[in-house]
Amino acid sequence: MKAAWFEAFGNAKDVIRVGEQTKPQAGPGEVLVRLQTSGVNPSDVKKRAGAFPNLLKDGPVIPHSDGAGVIEAVGDKVANSRVGERVWVYQAQFARSLGTAAEYVALDSNRAVSLPDNTDFDVGACLGIPAMTAHRCVHSDGDVKDHWILVTGGAGRVGYYAIQWAKMAGAKVIATASNMEDKALCIKLGASGVVNHREPDWSKKVLDCTGGKKISRVIEVEFGANLPEILECIAVNGTIATYSSTLVKQPQLPFLQMMYMDLTVRMVIVYSMPEAAKALAVGDITKALERNLLRHRIAKTVPLESLPQAHQLIESPGLRGCVVVDTS
User: How far is Cα 277 from Cα 301, in angstroms, rounded to an integer?
Assistant: First the structure.
């Protein structure tokens, strides 16, 4: 099969190779998926750059966790009726070396989710990390109906879905965005107000949007950098659900201030989510897709041969939307 892989860490253009690899087989409890698309996420490019030094201990890595395609074969203990099923897959390259940047992937049948007929394969490649992370951030700490939720980076890959999940759950949403195009997008998705997180004292503008009511939930893309402002607008007993802290990689916490507010900080990553949370996200994604309730934003689609370009796009500042690789 055609696949992309790396066997050393480094820049995408230097280490990614495209060529022939052995076609996998579906083992017990697994399905073999003929992939049409593969989704690229920040965790994928960080792995390729060397964030996990032991990743290459078992040999070359075919990257990417997300993708979509059609089940071609099933292993023992999987119903034959799944053959021919359109699916989206997630968590493919977790704790192993074979991901979705290839024509085929074999993985646990639970990680291959039925893709409704009204949903394209390119959308299917965007659901694993972005949509499931956003779902967990919104729903991990109880009912959000009528709560004020702040989504920082509302036009980003996760923020885009987080606004939608929050609105579907009956929350009132404030988002942050740094330009007029992104601001308009957040409003279109349902945000009641949008503030510029690059302006000083932007937390005051958040409170202007809420009429002075403090935020009970925050969905945070830059935890370390934004924490000082968040603490100015979050309510006592509030929750910060964060999935990234790129600018400040080792944040320092004002412990006493946060303790006296009885704040919860929840770190979110799909790979480590409880299985019950994954199932809940998958179920809600399926319902939303069937009813055309979710909007999707695809920034770029590239062929498998151009995988280094896809990784470079993810690493470029200002990217908005998902990057999809055509593996067909």
Answer: 30
Tell me the C-alpha distance between 147 and 152, whole Å: 16
Which residue in this structure is represented by tokens 């990743």? 55
**First-last CA distance in the chain:** 11
Given this structure, which CATH class describes domain 2-126+296-326? alpha beta
**Tokens at residue 132, please?**
């499931």
Confirm whether 2-126+296-326 and 131-271 share one CATH topology.
no
As beta bridge partners, residue 32 has 73, 106
Helix (H) / strand (E) containing 135: helix 132-139
**Residue 250 structure tokens:** 């080792």
Residue 137 in contact with residue 163, Cβ under 8 Å? no
Residues 6+ apart with CB under 8 A from 276: none
Domain covering 131-271 assigned CATH 3.40.50.720 in the classification: yes
- With CA atoms as reference, report the closest residue to 45 among 296, 328, 323, 327: 323
| Cα separation, 41 vs 128, whole angstroms | 10
Q: Indicate the domain borders of the chain.
A: 2-126+296-326, 131-271
Distance in angstroms (rounded) separating the CA atoms of residues 221 and 194: 15
Provide the whole-model pTM.
0.96
Block means of pLDDT (10 residues each) for the chain, 328 residues, are 98 97 98 98 96 94 98 98 98 96 98 98 97 98 97 96 98 96 96 97 98 98 98 98 96 97 98 97 98 96 97 88 95
Whether 64 contacts 90, CB under 8 Å: no
Which pair of structure tokens corresponds to residue 31?
């399905």
Distance of alpha carbon 35 from its chain centroid, rounded? 19
Encoded tokens for 99: 């991901």
- Secondary structure class of 298 (helix, strand, coil): strand
Of 263, 267, 270, nearest in space to 242 by CA: 267
Nearest to 36 by CA among 285, 233, 309, 303: 303
